[in-house]
Amino acid sequence: MRRAPAIALGLAALAGALAPSSAAAQAARCSASALPVAVVAPTPAAAAYGKELPLLARSTGRRVTGLTLRLTRRGRTVARGALGRALTTSGGRVRLTVEGALRAGAHRLAVSGRASGCARTVTTTRSLRFSAARRLAVTGVDEGDRTPGAPRQVTVRVRPRAGVPLRLVRATLLDAAGRTVGTGRRDAAITRATPLTLALSRDAGAGTYELVLSARSGKERASRVLRRALVLAAAPPAPLPTPATSLAPTTPVETPTGVTPGVFAQGISLRWSAGTGAGSEQRGFAVPGIGSGEVVCSPRAQYLRVVPSDGSHETSMVLWTHRDWTDWRESALRESTTTLGSSPEFLEGLNKFSAPAWDGSSNGSEKRSHGYMVGVVSDRGPFGGPGEARTPTTIRISWDWDFTTGGAERCSVDLDVHTEGAGGDGPGTLQARSLPVTWRGSATAAGRDAVVRDVPGFGRVAVECRPGPSGSRRLTVVDPAPGLRVDAWTFQGSDTTGVSLVAAPYVLELPTNGLVQGELWIDDGTGRKGDLHELLVASRWKVNDPDPAQNACGLAGQVLRR
């Protein structure tokens, strides 16, 4: 019993001896130098960033809360931001708001936070250097297309120059205020046209954004940067449902579409003159739900290009092309269709002959031209499937160029692209109504061989593509309004035939392989074309193959109120 005080005294002494050691360990554990945070920039090129600097942070050990970052240069704050959640080893993106402009050179980054087990916030600083980057040279970057089924993803297509691979590719999408709305990356080398997916961090509506692309070109050790405008379409219109039952050949029935009539319209102009075309020779556009495209007009190349985003789908582009060289002219129907193993893109020349030389020499034979194209781009669904009726896009393009005199070259191109989207039926409202019919194999045609759309003030427009040699393949205006007129032209090969319908039945036979262009309007007795609607239908069908499984039909049409 007398030993108890001695034991108590010994324990107290031991506790006293340990206390300073524990405090020292805790202090060391929570020192600034021990803040377990690693921070890197997606690319060191200063030109790759706008008003936001998205730094990548990751905990190298313990969980960190209250993480804030402040970037300074020569004592002045350049950017600052915070992570609104705990930082773990899985990492996170800290968006710093740039105050002014980010410039090349050495910077100091102050990293503040509280590590798990620490009672106080500590700050550590480290160096972060940004470089001045040269312009990244690529053959092209195609317009952004919403990834089907993933509204917060956008896919662009990067095309490197031949023989010059791109490595460590980084992409940032900026809005008009310079804020980052999407990012993407690819570490593996890109040697040919390759899709690059950007994840959107916030809702991005249809409009024009800035795409900042950085990459290492060839064997270079420093990144180059390319900044360019990128047109982003609205979320892809939903595929139009097919009819629930096969329709009797003479009794079209209303087919619900699930899409509010409206239109996503893109009006694009390309103009340059006085030989100063550099930087103004290319314009991009979106083909909602299908892919992207571009139009190019320079003394070296003049073309329309469409790149489908899903290589597993059959995609078609049908164009009626008219070229005029003043002394003579020609017209022709052109169709491009993807197949398994075919080129992943459509390239249609505005020119017919080889392009003239850039230096204005006599090389090349087409130095002056004007003309137009009109047609339809459509998606017929996955290869090998029964066919899907998807929303098509119509294209109308006109051009005029003169490259005859060096230093005085000029070019102008106007392009209109229309796709059905959300909208309304108010007076003067721009609207598009899609008319798609697709089936593969006669046995799959039932329930897929017709579609009907209401066109207020005109009636109902139906398209049919029945299987079998005796089946009907036609467009009909059902329940027509009084005074309706339909003027239409059918293009096949290099031939054009026209017809004017002023009374029922309003029926247009659809060609085996061709394009129908028309106008629907109401004749009020004055001769004016009031409430004009434009019609385009691309048509390809085969119904007499000895093997019924080889028969197919693809109709892609649109009625557009301008």
Tell me what you see in this structure.
The chain has one helix at residues 4-29; strands spanning 37-40, 52-59, 64-73, 76-82, 92-98, 105-115, 122-130, 138-141, 145-147, 150-160, 166-174, 180-186, 194-200, 207-217, 224-232, 264-272, 282-287, 291-297, 302-308, 313-324, 329-337, 346-349, 368-382, 393-402, 410-419, 431-440, 450-455, 459-465, 473-478, 484-492, 495-501, 506-509, 513-522, 530-542, 552-561. With 562 residues, the protein is mainly beta. Among the domains are: 33-130, Macroglobulin (MG2) domain (Immunoglobulin-like), CATH 2.60.40; 134-232, Immunoglobulin-like, CATH 2.60.40; 431-561, Immunoglobulin-like, CATH 2.60.40. The strands form 6 sheets. Strands 8, 9, 10, 11, 12, 13, 14 and 15 form an 8-stranded antiparallel sheet that branches. Strands 1-2-5-4-3-6-7 form a 7-stranded antiparallel sheet, with no helix packed on it. The longest helix is centred in the first third of the chain and has 26 residues, at 4-29. Residues 1-21, 237-260, 355-364 and 424-428 have low confidence and may be disordered.
